[in-house]
């Protein structure tokens, strides 16, 4: 029986622009005439992925009392996410993100948090206490004190932290890392957390993980190279990347985290959960947009290990 996944995080309105190449600093790049507007936000994307895959999901966050907020809520409602703990603010707009995607599928993302900045520790604590989740999934697009409150209120839940986007000063994040069960950084985030350059190979990744000090499990996402899984007392395991015709890599990390949370809520062991998340995240890059669609899951499932 699958337990509840509670996601504390952001809800945004995304505008995705297709460009031949990502612009360099000071450079202007014209789009290919393709503009996609869709609901997004790391928290909402991860909640949607877990729900589409069959988990019972509750979202904790904030939107503005505006059309983007309505779109965000409707999209989550359509896939069965419980929105009881999503606050609607009258005095601030819904968060927005502008995403550029080049011909190779690589992307850049700029986010204005909007209502996401207003989520309070009290709101988070009340929501998690009421939900009593099996898995708590958190990112860093909401205030740091809300993230800390979420971790403190988790109780017996498995706490999964995706430390993105990494703030300019990672020290407050380091204070939280030792209190989570599963940390899911990419290479860049791991390097900054460890106070080291971004690792380029498995040995450097392992050195960075060791430099974090006492932690639970660490799953380092490596993009097209797959993921490295570190569990206490065990040798690290590489889950290889799956070759895919990438159209848009934006949101792949969110699909990974949502799938990982859904599998952990089912009682799946961490390594097998990583294998499933790795397969689905790879498959998701073949489709445009930052959010997995329910009608694509059956098509993606043959890739699962």
TrEMBL record:
<comment type="pathway">
    <text>Carbohydrate metabolism; D-ribose degradation; D-ribose 5-phosphate from beta-D-ribopyranose: step 2/2.</text>
</comment>
<dbReference type="InterPro" id="IPR002139">
    <property type="entry name" value="Ribo/fructo_kinase"/>
</dbReference>
<feature type="binding site">
    <location>
        <begin position="221"/>
        <end position="226"/>
    </location>
    <ligand>
        <name>ATP</name>
    </ligand>
</feature>
<dbReference type="InterPro" id="IPR011611">
    <property type="entry name" value="PfkB_dom"/>
</dbReference>
<feature type="binding site">
    <location>
        <begin position="41"/>
        <end position="45"/>
    </location>
    <ligand>
        <name>substrate</name>
    </ligand>
</feature>
<keyword id="KW-0808">Transferase</keyword>
<dbReference type="GO" id="GO:0004747">
    <property type="term" value="F:ribokinase activity"/>
</dbReference>
<comment type="similarity">
    <text>Belongs to the carbohydrate kinase PfkB family. Ribokinase subfamily.</text>
</comment>
<keyword id="KW-0119">Carbohydrate metabolism</keyword>
<feature type="binding site">
    <location>
        <position position="254"/>
    </location>
    <ligand>
        <name>substrate</name>
    </ligand>
</feature>
<feature type="active site" description="Proton acceptor">
    <location>
        <position position="254"/>
    </location>
</feature>
<dbReference type="GO" id="GO:0046872">
    <property type="term" value="F:metal ion binding"/>
</dbReference>
<feature type="binding site">
    <location>
        <position position="287"/>
    </location>
    <ligand>
        <name>K(+)</name>
    </ligand>
</feature>
<feature type="binding site">
    <location>
        <position position="284"/>
    </location>
    <ligand>
        <name>K(+)</name>
    </ligand>
</feature>
<feature type="binding site">
    <location>
        <position position="141"/>
    </location>
    <ligand>
        <name>substrate</name>
    </ligand>
</feature>
<dbReference type="GO" id="GO:0019303">
    <property type="term" value="P:D-ribose catabolic process"/>
</dbReference>
<comment type="subunit">
    <text>Homodimer.</text>
</comment>
<dbReference type="InterPro" id="IPR011877">
    <property type="entry name" value="Ribokinase"/>
</dbReference>
<dbReference type="InterPro" id="IPR029056">
    <property type="entry name" value="Ribokinase-like"/>
</dbReference>
<feature type="binding site">
    <location>
        <position position="186"/>
    </location>
    <ligand>
        <name>ATP</name>
    </ligand>
</feature>
<comment type="function">
    <text>Catalyzes the phosphorylation of ribose at O-5 in a reaction requiring ATP and magnesium. The resulting D-ribose-5-phosphate can then be used either for sythesis of nucleotides, histidine, and tryptophan, or as a component of the pentose phosphate pathway.</text>
</comment>
<feature type="binding site">
    <location>
        <begin position="12"/>
        <end position="14"/>
    </location>
    <ligand>
        <name>substrate</name>
    </ligand>
</feature>
<keyword id="KW-0460">Magnesium</keyword>
<feature type="binding site">
    <location>
        <position position="289"/>
    </location>
    <ligand>
        <name>K(+)</name>
    </ligand>
</feature>
<feature type="binding site">
    <location>
        <position position="248"/>
    </location>
    <ligand>
        <name>K(+)</name>
    </ligand>
</feature>
<feature type="binding site">
    <location>
        <position position="278"/>
    </location>
    <ligand>
        <name>ATP</name>
    </ligand>
</feature>
<keyword id="KW-0479">Metal-binding</keyword>
<keyword id="KW-0963">Cytoplasm</keyword>
<keyword id="KW-0547">Nucleotide-binding</keyword>
<keyword id="KW-0630">Potassium</keyword>
<dbReference type="GO" id="GO:0005524">
    <property type="term" value="F:ATP binding"/>
</dbReference>
<dbReference type="Pfam" id="PF00294">
    <property type="entry name" value="PfkB"/>
</dbReference>
<feature type="domain" description="Carbohydrate kinase PfkB">
    <location>
        <begin position="4"/>
        <end position="292"/>
    </location>
</feature>
<keyword id="KW-0418">Kinase</keyword>
<dbReference type="GO" id="GO:0005829">
    <property type="term" value="C:cytosol"/>
</dbReference>
<feature type="binding site">
    <location>
        <begin position="253"/>
        <end position="254"/>
    </location>
    <ligand>
        <name>ATP</name>
    </ligand>
</feature>
<protein>
    <recommendedName>
        <fullName>Ribokinase</fullName>
        <ecNumber>2.7.1.15</ecNumber>
    </recommendedName>
</protein>
<feature type="binding site">
    <location>
        <position position="250"/>
    </location>
    <ligand>
        <name>K(+)</name>
    </ligand>
</feature>
<keyword id="KW-0067">ATP-binding</keyword>
């Amino acid at each position: 029986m699958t337990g509840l996944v509670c996601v504390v995080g952001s809800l945004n309105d995304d505008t995705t622009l297709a460009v031949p190449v990502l612009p360099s600093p000071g450079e202007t790049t014209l789009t290919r005439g393709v503009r996609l507007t869709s609901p997004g936000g790391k928290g909402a994307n991860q909640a949607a992925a877990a729900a589409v895959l069959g988990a019972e999901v509750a979202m904790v966050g904030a939107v503005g009392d505006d059309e983007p907020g309505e779109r965000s809520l409707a999209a989550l409602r359509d896939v069965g996410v419980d929105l009881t703990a999503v606050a609607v603010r009258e005095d601030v707009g819904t968060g927005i993100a502008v995403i550029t995607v080049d011909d190779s599928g690589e992307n850049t993302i700029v986010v204005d948090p909007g209502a996401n900045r207003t989520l309070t520790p009290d709101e988070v604590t009340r929501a998690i206490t009421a939900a009593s989740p099996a898995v708590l999934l958190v990112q860093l697009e909401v205030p740091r004190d809300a993230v800390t409150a979420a971790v403190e209120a988790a109780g017996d839940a498995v706490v999964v932290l995706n430390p993105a986007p990494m703030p300019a000063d990672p020290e407050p994040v380091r204070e939280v890392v030792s209190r989570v069960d599963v940390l899911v950084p990419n290479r860049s985030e791991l390097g900054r957390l460890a106070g080291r350059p971004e690792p380029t190979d498995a040995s450097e990744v392992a050195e960075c993980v060791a430099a974090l000090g006492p932690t639970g499990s660490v799953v380092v996402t490596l993009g097209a190279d797959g993921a490295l899984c570190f569990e206490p007392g065990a040798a690290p395991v590489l889950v290889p990347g799956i070759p895919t015709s990438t159209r848009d890599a934006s949101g792949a990390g969110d699909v990974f985290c949502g799938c990982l949370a859904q599998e952990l809520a089912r009682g799946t062991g961490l390594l097998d959960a990583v294998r499933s998340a790795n397969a689905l995240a790879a498959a998701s890059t073949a489709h445009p947009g930052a959010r997995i669609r329910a009608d694509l899951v059956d098509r993606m499932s043959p890739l699962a290990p």
